Amino acid sequence: MENYNSSFYDSDDVRVDPGQQFNLKIKRLGINGEGIGYYQHKLVFVPGALPTETVTVEVQKELKNFIRANLIKVLETSADRVTPVDDYANNVGGFELENLSYEAQLKFKRDIIAETLEKFQPEGYKRYKLLPTIGMDNPVGYRNKASFQIREQDGQIVAGLYKSRSHEVVDLKESALQHPLTMKVMRAIVTMIQDLGIPVYNEEQNSGIIKTVVVRVAAATNEVQVTFITQSKKLLKKHQLIERIHEELPEVVSIAQNVNPGETSLVWGDETTVIDGKNTITEKIGDVRFDLSVRAFMQANPYMIPTLYDEAFKALNLRSKDRVVDAYSGVGTIGLTIAKDVREVRGMDTIAEAVEDANVNSIKNGIMNASYEVGKAEELLPAWIEEGFKPDAIIVDPPRTGLDDALIDTILATEPKKFVYISCNPSTLARDLVKLTKKYRVEYIQSVDLLPQTARIECVVKFIKK
């Protein structure tokens, strides 16, 4: 979603046509990493353009309050512009900042937090301490999962991501951001599909079998999990495919099929079956080992997870007597990592498979003071309190949609002394802070770069009870 403030301009009288070209001065980056300039006081969003640059753009589409345009030529170049590590960086999503120096990327990520705070204006926001973004030493080769669309183009099977604002798949033969194993396995799988003549999905005709291939690697063990997302339960030449994977890709220890029929914007369907090998692969964070089932969530950058969690635990300032609630717990990566340092951990998640994984991971690691339940935090937490459980600390790590209003109300009613919010979306964080700052003061916000070369931001918020 484009980020703009309609109070800056009155743009009703601005008219442009698709294909029209004009020169533009880029003023800043938007929340999605696109360059932003003004044409006759109307906002123009230009992916690939950088602040201070003068560029020639071509109108892609005009909407009521802004214009989308494509970058045609850079006339005056920013000192922060670098050569992207991937040739297609500006053609597909997930590589938005590859042409921006890494130092400038880290600054941008802190600045975006400041901009969203200014937009929502939670209590005391001008006094918040926004710490410099913590980055990677080598910000490439980190993505532990590749989820690529599989299509046929000119008689060849391709695997990649959709071209920006289209359903045309860009064939990604290489990706500097992916863990090398994910790309090795993905390209080998594409060759197998081609050789075996397995029908792939045709979006226009809603026909074919294989829609998407998901390859996930556990960086600590180099175990690989492959999932074929298919149009139907039928997977032609399944046994030949499995046999070739065994012969050519010994790293693959788990092969699954997920059925997602029909035309849908969702990648995953409801039915998942392991068709060969183990049910899980094993990742490690610190001293704790985690078995990951096919649908289990794990942060995309295993190399920066310890840094993110260390910052969260530092902000919590835990003691051995503390009881901790791990909300939006997933497979227990946060709670199980701190369990040895506290009295008790209780977690919850709405995904039953994740909760099962969390409890299994607890047992396998010999952790006896952590337990996980299926349900919403805003429902389970009051029930636990009614039973006599009083949390000393709460840590929340919600999806991009942020906290549920009912959970915010529950936290404010519970009033834990220690409270930390891990956010992956500055906009929903700033929105949630409007309510949370009624009873809590923000001591600082520490941004951590889990997704270098993209506009995504993770941050840790330390609260102090008023």
Topology overview:
Blueprint: E1 21-29, E2 35-39, E3 42-46, E4 54-62, E5 66-76, H1 102-120, E6 129-134, E7 145-153, E8 156-162, E9 169-171, H2 180-196, E10 210-218, E11 223-230, H3 238-248, E12 252-259, E13 271-277, E14 281-285, E15 288-292, H4 305-316, E16 323-327, H5 333-338, E17 344-349, H6 352-364, E18 370-374, H7 377-386, E19 393-396, H8 405-414, E20 418-423, H9 426-436, E21 440-448, E22 458-465
Parallel strand pairs: 3-5, 6-21, 11-12, 16-17, 16-19, 17-18, 19-20
Antiparallel strand pairs: 1-2, 1-4, 2-3, 4-5, 7-8, 7-10, 8-9, 10-11, 12-13, 14-15, 20-22, 21-22
Helix pairs in contact: 1-9, 2-3, 7-8
Give a description of the structure.
- Belongs to the class I-like SAM-binding methyltransferase superfamily. RNA M5U methyltransferase family.
- The active site is at residue 424.
- InterPro entries: MeTrfase_TrmA_AS, NA-bd_OB-fold, SAM-dependent_MTases_sf, TRAM_dom, U5_MeTrfase_fam.
- The chain has 466 residues and is α/β, with parallel strands linked by helices.
- It folds into 3 domains: 20-81, Nucleic acid-binding proteins (OB fold (Dihydrolipoamide Acetyltransferase, E2P), Beta Barrel); 108-137 and 301-465, Vaccinia Virus protein VP39 (Rossmann fold, 3-Layer(aba) Sandwich); 145-285, OB fold (Dihydrolipoamide Acetyltransferase, E2P), CATH 2.40.50.
- The chain is built from 9 helices and 22 strands.
- The chain has helices at residues 102-120, 180-196, 238-248, 305-316, 333-338, 352-364, 377-386, 405-414, 426-436, and strands at residues 21-29, 35-39, 42-46, 54-62, 66-76, 129-134, 145-153, 156-162, 169-171, 210-218, 223-230, 252-259, 271-277, 281-285, 288-292, 323-327, 344-349, 370-374, 393-396, 418-423, 440-448, 458-465.
- An 8-stranded mixed beta sheet has the order 6-21-22-20-19-16-17-18, sandwiched between helices.
- Strand 14 and strand 15 (288-292) form a beta hairpin.
- Helix 1 (102-120) runs parallel beside helix 9, helix 2 crosses helix 3 (238-248) and helix 7 (377-386) runs parallel beside helix 8.
- The radius of gyration is 24 Å and the shape is globular.
- The two termini are 34 Å apart.
- Residues 1-11 have low confidence and may be disordered.
